[in-house]
Amino acid sequence: MTEQESTIQALGQRAKQASYALANLASNKKQALLRAIAAELRQASAAIIAANAQDLAAARQAGLDAAMLDRLLLDEARLDGIIADIDKVIALGDPVGQELDSRLLDNGLRLSRRRVPLGVIGVIYEARPNVTVDIAVLALKTGNAVILRGGKETLASNKVLTSAIRQALVAQGLPADAVQLIDSPDRSLVSALLKLDKYVDMIVPRGGAQLQRLCAEQATIPVILGGIGICHLFVDEAADLKRAVDVIANAKVQRPTVCNALDTLLVHRAIAAEFIPVICRELAALGVTFYGCEQTRALSAASGITPLAADDESYATEWLSLTLGIRVVQDLDEAVAHIRRYSSGHSEAILTDNIHAAAEFMNQVDSAAVYVNASTRFTDGSEFGLGAEVAVSTQKLHARGPMGLEALTTYKWLGTGDYTRRK
Amino acid sequence: MTEQESTIQALGQRAKQASYALANLASNKKQALLRAIAAELRQASAAIIAANAQDLAAARQAGLDAAMLDRLLLDEARLDGIIADIDKVIALGDPVGQELDSRLLDNGLRLSRRRVPLGVIGVIYEARPNVTVDIAVLALKTGNAVILRGGKETLASNKVLTSAIRQALVAQGLPADAVQLIDSPDRSLVSALLKLDKYVDMIVPRGGAQLQRLCAEQATIPVILGGIGICHLFVDEAADLKRAVDVIANAKVQRPTVCNALDTLLVHRAIAAEFIPVICRELAALGVTFYGCEQTRALSAASGITPLAADDESYATEWLSLTLGIRVVQDLDEAVAHIRRYSSGHSEAILTDNIHAAAEFMNQVDSAAVYVNASTRFTDGSEFGLGAEVAVSTQKLHARGPMGLEALTTYKWLGTGDYTRRK
């Protein structure tokens, strides 16, 4: 075993041990813990902001761009926001402890399923210090221990944040090791974490495609892949084209850097000649640039815009920017076929006033979220009323789409007999 | 890409395509399909039994043991049983199409979750030809396509079985490729299948520890691990010792070769001197042999039996035979600690008349099934009233314990607006 492997093994063992102390806590105890964490973070705010200044200085020196620096930044206002979010989690219902499907079996056993914490959750994320608090709080609310691995750019901030959380745990008579930070940028620690199936019950990678791939390939622990959205919107021939423009603009422009932003617009050929010049002009005015199929490029000429030529690669790209692919399709079937081929299974939408087209699209498109006459931007835990979001899953097992508190739980079957034997 | 990889890729692509045709079938269409499969199997019974005779002859020549030969065997009676089981699956409710948690969101969207098939399921299993039919029928009942990889010893039988199923699909106007068999014993095909995440949504390995490990390590697709049961039963000081004997005998002896059979008996020290000689004598009379801790070995001497010395390795063994580990523990806490250390998370039981001990055991033991005053042998889809069993999961994501039809489904979020934008 390498030194890194034994470091991670010890950390996992401590996390598992801590998870036992959390698993059967009553909700009011967990609420008290969350309030204590908020208080500790408030008290440590000067130290947190100082540590963050250190991270920022190092990041500037390393030449990180403005967007990255902004993501790293923790000032007083942002920290207040993070602490205020803890109150929102406190207000949520606790899924743990519910008994589901209780019944008396023919064999004489009384059987039920009880919702219980997963146990130990490993979360790997990029340089956003708010995630450290978010995830710790969601994990503790559901009685889980958590192992955090944040981006190396926020290591100083994360150390102070987790230390405050650990102090709150201890003050509440709970094991500090319920929240542990991997406090070294050594990448081999991540590899070791991904193979720690003896102690870790779920890995959630919150990051780009490369991190997702790494986890899919290396992990021996169940992983929830997600957060990659190659999202489509299909403008049907029966769409209200005037109203369509605002929905498409919302999907593309409101926050182009996130996973539920629109990547490819599919346009029914029957309305393409009318619609494509309009949508190109409107979006171009908002700063959007385009990749288009041949027809799109011909039709958009009327608006004075010529998109770059779209190809297999551009259709398979999550833009995360003010770029949009546009393709003219023969009909709904071709739109569905395009989505099946290129989608990452995140969010797709149809705009149509035709009830048959709407139903067909919902039936045929198999993504985490499928919309009729709505922006793809709605795929989000808080928009969906889940109150919190651990991640957005694009796989089909366990949790799909925005993951709320329930996704941090599992169930165990409880059977009670009277010295009952199987026949 | 190797030849094996491209073979598997083509197979996966066909399965995915076929899955689209199944996903939105009404229940009565799927019932008709299952009836057609039963009819085709009946019609092909002579061919099936002839192919099985071929498998058996080859197995005998290869020197496989009697237990293995028995598992391989498909005679008329067994085939009748397999066909009769299809009727049971027909009688089950169809979980696909249900809409869950429908509600109107604050943002104006009407949102629900619709239960849908997973899509394509890959199942890797050992030399039991009945599994071929079982799994195909369960997958089709829930609108999934399936890729089957059975043991090489049953290849001839499996070819005829799947060919009959594919004929039924075609007769019902459905794509034959909804059920495909990997019809070569080449192991590199399995490795290729495990990395086919583009087309396969879930892998279920039904086999021993080695297969489970292979899948955990190589798969880039979500895998449901399971079927390995290192099961414990704790005899508390407050147990009714007379009645305990029969439950323990049931757990150990009724069917020792299956995953829910008892592996280690934990005995509270307060009743060890009285109980250990009794249980050893009773079980020995049923053919059980023992590994015991030091105390067990000393105490069992009174019954004229001396267990072999138990150690770390024996406690970590799934016996799958008439062998039993016995250990004396200080109290319930030590029993729980033993289980946490050695259990595979399958099934554990306590025997006690003390309500506090019972509650504590159910709270502290985190396995798929936890029993009070019942045999571990109950962990089974049909005993649990699920009607069918795809596998028994020992992991915590997606499905835990016996997996019924619902475990072959996921959900998608459906949102309907009125050209609704996110604020």
Automatic annotation (TrEMBL), chains A, B:
<keyword id="KW-0028">Amino-acid biosynthesis</keyword>
<dbReference type="GO" id="GO:0050661">
    <property type="term" value="F:NADP binding"/>
</dbReference>
<dbReference type="InterPro" id="IPR012134">
    <property type="entry name" value="Glu-5-SA_DH"/>
</dbReference>
<dbReference type="InterPro" id="IPR016163">
    <property type="entry name" value="Ald_DH_C"/>
</dbReference>
<dbReference type="Pfam" id="PF00171">
    <property type="entry name" value="Aldedh"/>
</dbReference>
<dbReference type="GO" id="GO:0055129">
    <property type="term" value="P:L-proline biosynthetic process"/>
</dbReference>
<dbReference type="InterPro" id="IPR015590">
    <property type="entry name" value="Aldehyde_DH_dom"/>
</dbReference>
<protein>
    <recommendedName>
        <fullName>Gamma-glutamyl phosphate reductase</fullName>
        <ecNumber>1.2.1.41</ecNumber>
    </recommendedName>
</protein>
<comment type="pathway">
    <text>Amino-acid biosynthesis; L-proline biosynthesis; L-glutamate 5-semialdehyde from L-glutamate: step 2/2.</text>
</comment>
<dbReference type="InterPro" id="IPR020593">
    <property type="entry name" value="G-glutamylP_reductase_CS"/>
</dbReference>
<keyword id="KW-0560">Oxidoreductase</keyword>
<dbReference type="InterPro" id="IPR000965">
    <property type="entry name" value="GPR_dom"/>
</dbReference>
<comment type="similarity">
    <text>Belongs to the gamma-glutamyl phosphate reductase family.</text>
</comment>
<dbReference type="InterPro" id="IPR016162">
    <property type="entry name" value="Ald_DH_N"/>
</dbReference>
<dbReference type="GO" id="GO:0005737">
    <property type="term" value="C:cytoplasm"/>
</dbReference>
<keyword id="KW-0641">Proline biosynthesis</keyword>
<dbReference type="InterPro" id="IPR016161">
    <property type="entry name" value="Ald_DH/histidinol_DH"/>
</dbReference>
<dbReference type="GO" id="GO:0004350">
    <property type="term" value="F:glutamate-5-semialdehyde dehydrogenase activity"/>
</dbReference>
<keyword id="KW-0963">Cytoplasm</keyword>
<comment type="function">
    <text>Catalyzes the NADPH-dependent reduction of L-glutamate 5-phosphate into L-glutamate 5-semialdehyde and phosphate. The product spontaneously undergoes cyclization to form 1-pyrroline-5-carboxylate.</text>
</comment>
<keyword id="KW-0521">NADP</keyword>
<feature type="domain" description="Aldehyde dehydrogenase">
    <location>
        <begin position="5"/>
        <end position="286"/>
    </location>
</feature>
